[in-house]
Each structure stands twice: as structure tokens, then as C-alpha cells.
């Protein structure tokens, strides 16, 4: 069996490596003409994601490139302490969630894939598919094509393959937030290394962690109408945090600020697979970054799909088994993350209610016991 994988973000190389472990040949086709070196800010690889990376023998490199972040402290914009929760649950050997630059995570999984003999073709933007019954043919914008036994979409939230499988599939859903992030030095914000400080401000949300080096890894979520993009984001961000009881506005005055990106997730879609084509990761169940699970869910998908393809009698049975095992969990993560995103975009009345109820929510819905379904989940080949 030969698999064509569209998309070379995090999920594409992880899927190719998992397939190789299962004895299945894979080739990756990336829409962009160059690698994603230096692209993106940073992300969370939760303990369940590191457990999945361990199956691919890639976890050590990821942990070495990131910073351990096992804990979150929540405060309001006025400085009121709202509660503390674990950022993931430690694995049996003590491994905890790590924060890593997206470009570093991408580089590691891509380099691991190529070192294992997996080919990556760049500048291959998918435009159409032909499922002949015996094979699948992918047609790319540059006029070339590729033929395989199956095609796996790891293209992300704006997947072309999802539309080709089902033109009536629900579109990505805007969360109401634009996201920003950066790494800087700023003495006005301090904290214990390894702790995320999550600040539910009066008009926007701010989070940061302090590395051992003293650098501040920060991100901000700004409620905004989709498509309403100013020439310069800095004044809007500074104004959004100016009346909070901390120095986030001062940091934003001094820190480099790139373009914000709109945050999307994906409502439940009816079709995960059809014929010889299957969707994985954000193409099937995109989640907002609020739960810190996007990369982890894509890596879990990769391993489960490879196992199903290895063990099932044919690709149809494998795809059905994959969806049966993954859909409920993935959609639960999407729903959980959207609940968190909605709390970040609360209006004046909702903000008061949120700050009153947050301690109770954290105690009951975000305790270690209540989130064991999320972080204690282990996949295997």
C-alpha cells in the first residue's frame, strides 16, 4: 500500500512516520513552495501528545527544544486570583506538558520523517481528486499528479480535501478572537518558570510563561469582528489591556508584534472519509488553541490511523475503525476548547459572571480528575 499525504505541518510528517512503522509507504505533498521554518509563534504539546510522540520515538527532541509548563494560574484583569489548574497531567515517568515554538516542532517532525526516508514534495497544492475504485489520483495546481492506494488529508482547518469529499460540509467556525504571540524580555512581568499565567482582562485575554532564561513567552486573544484588520495592531492591543491591573499593556508597547490571525475551529462534520480518502487532524476536527490540544490530537490521529490500516482487512474497514475510535474524543476536545474561547470573548455582563463562576468551574470541570479523559489518554501502534 502507498499513501499520499497532503499537508506537511505537524500531522503530515507524524502520519507518515506512523505509517512507516506499520509497514506502509507514504509520500507527503505540501501546498507551499518552501518549508515552514520560522513560521508561527509557539504552542502547547500536552502530556498526552508527548505520550503519542513517544510511540514515534520523537518525544525527546521535542522536550529538549521546549520548556516544561505543567501548571496554569488564572487571574482576572483586576488581579483577582481565580484559581490554579494543571496544564496536562504528568505521565507515569514524570513527563509534563511542554511549550515549544511551532517552527521547532515542525522542524523536528519533518527532519525525523526525512531521516526515515519519507519524501516531501513542495509546491503541490491540491486542486482535485479522482478515486478510480482501485487507486486515488491527486491533481495539483502546477499541473502534476500523483497516484496512490489511499489519500490522507493533513491539510489543516481550511482543507481542500474536506470540500472535495463533501461540498456541503460545515465551514470553519470563527471563534470571535484574533490571536497574537511573541517572545521578549520584559522585567515588568514575573513568574515562576513552568507556570502559565492566564489573565482574563476587561477587554481581552493575555497569557504568558517565563522561561528559565527569563524570557517572556506571551500570547494575546483580542475579540474582533472577522476581517476587521487594522494597518497596525499595536494601538488596539495596548488599549485593550490599558485598564487592567498589570503591565501587559507596557509589554505590548515594547514587544515586537506581528500580524494577528483569526482563530477557527470546526463544528462536527458528517464525512470523515469516502472511498480511498480520509481526513485527519484539523481537516476533520479543528480545535481552537485554547485547550492546547491541536498538535496532540493530530499526532494521536496519526498513530490510530496507521494501526487501523495495518490491522484492518482493507482501507474501508480501516477508515471506519479510525473514525469510530477517534470521532467522539476529538469532538469532545473541540467542544471543551470552544467553551474556553467563549470565556475569553465575554462582554461586560458575561465578564462579571465569568469571574464569579470561574473558581467553581476550575474546581469541578478543570480538576485533575475531571480532565483525566483528556490527558490520560494513550494511543499505541
UniProtKB/TrEMBL annotation:
Taxonomy, superkingdom: Bacteria
Keyword line: Monooxygenase, Oxidoreductase
Pfam families: FAD_binding_3
GO molecular function: FAD binding; monooxygenase activity
Keyword rRNA processing on entry: no
Domain FAD-binding: 2-335
Protein name as annotated: 2-polyprenyl-6-methoxyphenol hydroxylase-like FAD-dependent oxidoreductase
Source organism per UniProt: Nonomuraea endophytica
